[in-house]
Description:
There is one protein chain. This protein has helices spanning about 1-10, 15-55, 60-70, 80-85, 90-105, 110-150, 160-185, 190-215, 230-255, 260-290. It is an all-alpha fold. Helix 3 (about 60-70) packs across helix 5, helix 8 (about 190-215) runs parallel beside helix 10 (about 260-290) and helix 9 runs antiparallel to helix 10 (about 260-290). It is elongated. The mean pLDDT is about 80.
Amino acid sequence: MIKQGIKNYFKNLKHFFTPLGTTALGMMFGLSVLLPGIISSINTLSLSIKAILQSIEIDFSVLEDSLITAVRALDWGDPISSVRSISSKSWLIDTLNQCIGALVGETDIYAAQISEAINICVNQIFGYFIVFILFTILGMIGGYFLTKWIIQRNIAKTTTPKWIVTNIIDSLLSVALIVLSLWLTSLWKPNIFISVIASVIIIGIVGLIEAYLLYARNIVDIKQIVNLKNIAKLFLTNIIILLLSCLCIMVSILLTNVLVGLFVGIAFIEIVFIVIDANAELYVLSLIEN
């Protein structure tokens, strides 16, 4: 199982650019909504502040430049922390207050109205952020689904309804585990090790059960497939595959930067999850043949 699994991993690395491309496409669609939306929201905020203060003229480009300067001032050597700051409502509200305060000076009389205008702007920006995240997740799901279909069609044939159901379950489970791992890592960096190990075990067990239901039901006893020995062997195989992918991600980070490394890492992790499931199928099929 171990030798076959590692061989299967290297064989399917040729499909690496499929999930990478669909994720990038999803992000591009998201950015096409996010960036114009942010600009529109800031422009509307400028007009609202101008209407509130009446006698004070606010240049939209100056307010935009002030906000860009605040974003650049974040520590981008730690991109996860910086992205977490930008995606915080409190950071956006405080930053916009500081930028507007620097442009118009003392505005205590209009503080409540300005605060309301800023809150409306921030809520609009967060709506655009949500759209961006949804498009990115759709790109990840689409890439996983497409890549798995390409890989699976070379392993074994199954009925279309079964194939659709199992792949939808696998896609949702894998993307949920990836998103959960990234979120846990943003809270506490060592969580990445715990979440990855747990994800590998979960995907392996689910893969064995699905492979049994697809190919081996009423042929062999489920205990011959889903047992501690097979789970342990599959876990060892998948950990080796995962370590190889982590090595590739580290190299990409060293050659580029952390953000690019994380982006590339999404594709590698999706390939790992797909191969984990494929290894389970290959094992069950070989068991049936024997």
